[in-house]
Amino acid sequence: MAAQTGGNLWRASSTVSVEAPPLAADARADLVIIGGGFTGNAAALEAARRGASVVLLEAETVGHGGSGRNVGLVNAGLWLPPQDVIKLMGREPGLRLVDILAQAPALVWSLVDREEIECEATRNGTLHLAHAPSGFRDLAERHRQGVELGAPLQLLDAEETKRRTGSSAFHGSLFDPRAGTIQPLSYARGLAAAAIRAGAKLHGASKVTGVTHDGEGWQVTANGHVVKAKSLLLATNAYFNGIDLGTRPQFVKVGYSQFATAPMPEHLRKNILAGGEGCWDTAMVMSSFRIDRAGRMIVGGIGNEGGAGGPVHASWARRKLRQVYPQLADLPFEHAWHGHIAMTGDHVPKILRLGPSGLACFGYSGRGIGPGTVFGTRAAIALLEDRETELPVAPVEQHVERFVEPKALYYETGAVLTHAINPPPFS
Ligand SMILES: Cc1cc2nc3c(=O)[nH]c(=O)nc-3n(C[C@H](O)[C@H](O)[C@H](O)COP(=O)(O)OP(=O)(O)OC[C@H]3O[C@@H](n4cnc5c(N)ncnc54)[C@H](O)[C@@H]3O)c2cc1C
After folding, report:
1. In the chain, fewer beta carbons within 10 Å around the N or the C end?
2. Cβ(369) to ligand 1 under 6 A?
3. CA-proximal residue: ligand 1, atom 21 (nearest)
4. Which among 177, 46, 32 is positioned nearest to 111, based on CA atoms?
């Protein structure tokens, strides 16, 4: 059965709106921000609350990029286990990043509370699900590393995992009580609305085409107008589009798709993720599962449902749902959508120095709700106060990603091949 699509569920269900008229005149500001996702909006909010004048330019609408399309898992940390981060970055910077990101969900929850953002925030943790015995061994190691660093993780056996998820498909799970889920577009819009209340000027339909520095400050061009500012933050992540810029962020673009069912009937809802935990699994081509406030089951996986492999991904979602939740096998999919993840070679986010008081934050590698909020907030402080020590990772002059096109093709082809055969089509 092909997925029926009402498009992006988050657009259909968000109750938060933002007034962001197109840039229609030249402007001056302390800080100009390009991109209206978690990173840009968090930066605009922090900067405006510190009394700075802020102009944010968004090519489309607030949350158009990954921020309005993602699964909504508010995780503590990156994809990588902490010891891998430490090995890659060195002990001190690695431990610092792990520590900062461990507190990222707390920052997200505090902004949701302070700004009263209506984003279906559910603070009941996440479950990293073992898809196979090898996955459970991986989780046991992640548990060991996390606990060693003070994380309040719990390793759950298959029985307890079944009790929480309502599925017997998993071999155990790792529960992280710091984490949770949000309606991501509402969170992005809520941050933007809060930034506007704090005095920031946000402009949608304002695609930046040129960025220059004349020795005194930045000139950013959009809609034929120029915004002049002392500081610049580029917050376009995977959606970097059409900006004439000397040093551009480099990353591999990876597709991820989601399929949301009609709301589950009440009698099934009681036993399926009744705690509202967000889930993803340990498979190399990973899958995610969560429910929204209306009780829709949202199945996600690597791959682009809008591309040539779309029918394969849609058929996979139906089989995956049937395999993990046979009780939902006949529930129709009402929404399907996809987005692009900005992956770096080592899966660690980057901060690129663009020039004097100019930074780009990108490469969250699929973990951008907590990290985007943290990087945006801290980048605003670093730029306004000329204090780079505030940044979660040291800025670099250049970041080179090799073979970005072949790697993107590799991810998509791998996802298509995996989804074509697993779960088996005729099981
Ligand atoms: C399908 C999917 C699932 C994901 N799931 C999760 C998850 O569960 N948990 C998690 O933590 N992370 C997840 N992520 C990652 C997360 O969504 C991103 O890392 C995060 O949204 C990045 O936020 P951002 O603000 O940096 O960039 P974005 O939200 O991508 O925003 C960039 C913005 O820049 C704008 N832009 C681009 N070019 C220009 C220009 N020339 N002028 C003006 N504006 C421009 C774009 O229109 C866009 O709105 C997922 C990502 C995807 C795609």
Report:
1. C
2. yes
3. 67
4. 46
- Comparing CA positions, the residue from 399, 354, 360, 366 lying closest to residue 379 is 360
Structure tokens at 49: 């609350």
Please work out, in degrees rounded to the nearest 5, the angle formed at the alpha carbon of residue 67 by the alpha carbons of 264 and 212: 170
Residue 35 Cα: closest atom of ligand 1: 34
Mutation to probe ligand 1, out of 23, 75, 239 (largest number of atoms < 8 A from CB): 239
Exposure b/e, 46-74, CB count within 10 A at least 16 = b = bbbbeebbbbbbbbebbbbbbbbbbbbbb
Mean pLDDT, range 139-161, rounded to an integer: 97
Distance of CA 88 from the midpoint of ligand 1 (Å): 24
Residue 263 CA, chain-centre distance (Å), reads 24
Query: How many angstroms separate the CA atoms of 404 and 183, rounded?
Result: 30
Tell me, yes or no, if the pTM score tops 0.85: yes
- Atom index in ligand 1 nearest the CA of residue 288 equals 8
- Distance of alpha carbon 41 from alpha carbon 259, whole angstroms: 27
Other residues' Cβ atoms within 10 Å of the Cβ of residue 271: 15
Q: Indicate the range of 13-17, 257-261, 398-402 predicted with least confidence.
A: 398-402
The string of DSSP codes covering 53-77 is -EEEE-SSSTT-SGGGTS--EE-SS
Map residue 404 onto helix, strand or coil. helix
**CA dihedral over 170, 176, 181, 185, signed as positive or negative:** negative
Please work out whether the CB of residue 388 comes within 6 Å of at least one atom of ligand 1: no
Q: Pick the atom of ligand 1 nearest to 256's CA.
A: 1
Cα end-to-end distance, the chain, whole Å: 15
- At 201-231, the pLDDT tens digits run 999 999 999 999 999 999 999 999 999 999 9
pLDDT in tens, 368-416: 999 999 999 999 999 999 999 999 999 999 999 999 999 999 999 999 9
Cβ pair 393, 93 in contact under 8 A: yes
DSSP of 139-205? HHHHHHHHHHTT---EEE-HHHHHHHHS-S--S-EEEETT-EE--HHHHHHHHHHHHHHTT-EEESS
- Which pLDDT belongs to residue 4? 55
C-beta separation of 415 from 287 below 8 A: no
Give me the numbers of helices (H) and strands (E) for the chain, helices first please: 12, 18
